[in-house]
Design goal:
Distance between the termini: 24 Å
CATH topology of the largest domain: Rossmann fold
Strand content: 15-25%
Number of domains: 2
Largest sheet: 6 strands, parallel
Number of helices: 15
Radius of gyration: 23 Å
Number of strands: 15
């Protein structure tokens, strides 16, 4: 069980996947550092992880540690990683007591000599119920007050927050308030007025309404490279170029040229060297203008010939070689869940700024003191 009952803490939950829980957490740490200089972070139960030194570490934990240099072992900030067979093993042989003990010890180490700990959940209040560690149960275990992050709108957020509130109430967990994320910029004031009224009827506070930031939903070429497990064919320093649009090069060069614009990712079979050379010429024709493709993905594992490879080596933007065909690559890029990467400094700056401008951080701090 938790032995640290003194260090202030808050648990960030969401009403559904991809509502922006990690983004909000990233920005809140920065905003709260002005009041709590030494902040700890923990994601007690993680479902998307990477291997670091033979340990499964939640990818959001890696992001937070890289951005803020949290000076805490990653295994403590990410004590439980839900591997593919985790649930099956648990249902065969329940070991909740061991999991609870692991989370408790990890939290105590994370909170050591910290002024505050931000705890990030893994989805809505019920996620994890199958292995008896729902977000509501974990928040109760950590003795943490909760902030719920929900998506834009009026009716849906209030409905979904109410559903989540029922589970938190069952575990006797206090909800500080709600942050509504990804609202169309021209509707922020309208949404804020009516969501505030709706939440008040449920006994909840509105902590902020955040406008949709398109840049946060745009993948970088580097993220796409990881998603496709693609090979980088040149030494471009622009791997973090943001992809505004995608064009599949399945047309003639003359027809394709009109699509070659800044921020475009060209997806084309690796044997379409004519399109690759046309992209190089187009870039070379405008050395003083802000034109450049975001990048090129060559598909079908078709490596260009020597002459085309020489041209690719001189291209300023990244050129990737993917194993899948063009349709599969385009589908994967379209369906990607875009997560902020530690190297995406522009996005991180946007996140920090939007929390400062649109979330009542002082209300959160006051609620922690009550």
């Amino acid at each position: 069980m938790i032995t640290n009952t003194v260090t202030p803490r808050v648990f960030i939950a969401a009403t559904r996947q991809n509502d922006g829980k990690t983004t909000i957490s990233l920005g809140l740490i920065s905003a709260l550092q002005k009041h709590f200089p030494r902040i700890g972070y923990i994601k007690p139960v993680g479902q998307r992880f990477v291997q670091i030194e033979e340990q499964n570490i939640d990818e959001d934990t890696v992001l937070m540690d890289t951005v803020y240099d949290l000076d805490c072992p990653l295994v403590d900030m990410s004590p439980i990683a839900v591997e593919p067979d985790f649930t099956r093993k648990y249902l065969q042989s329940s070991n909740r007591e061991a999991l609870v003990k692991k989370i408790g010890k990890a939290f105590d180490r994370v909170a050591w000599e910290r002024n505050f700990v931000l705890c990030e959940g893994s989805g809505h209040a019920g996620v994890g119920s199958v292995f008896d560690l729902s977000n509501a149960q974990v928040a109760a275990l950590l003795n943490a007050k909760v902030i719920i992050v929900t998506g834009g709108g009026i009716g849906r957020p209030i409905d979904e927050v109410s559903l989540n509130k029922a589970l938190f109430d069952k575990e006797e967990v206090e909800i500080i308030g709600v942050i509504v994320n990804k609202v169309m910029p021209d509707k922020v004031e309208h949404v804020a007025e009516f969501v505030r009224r709706g939440l008040k009827r449920k006994g909840l506070d509105l902590l902020g309404v955040i406008p949709h930031q398109r840049i946060l939903s745009i993948p970088s070429v580097g993220v796409i490279q990881d998603e496709l497990d693609a090979e980088l064919l040149n030494r471009s320093q622009q791997i973090n170029n943001l992809v505004d649009d995608v064009v599949v090069g399945a047309m003639s060069v003359n027809n394709a040229l009109r699509f070659f614009k800044s921020g475009v990712l060209l997806i084309t079979p690796g044997d379409r060297e004519d399109l690759v050379l046309a992209a190089a010429r187009r870039d070379g024709e405008r050395p003083r203008e802000p034109f450049s493709l975001a990048g090129i993905v060559l598909t079908g594992n078709l490596r260009p010939g020597a002459s085309a490879m020489k041209v690719i080596q001189g291209m300023p933007f990244p050129v990737l070689l993917a194993k899948d065909d063009s349709y599969q690559v385009a589908s994967k890029v379209h369906d990607m869940i875009v997560k902020i990467q530690p190297s995406e400094t522009e996005k991180i700056a946007v996140v920090r700024n939007m929390i400062t401008q649109h979330v009542d951080v002082n209300k959160i701090i006051k609620a922690l003191d009550d």
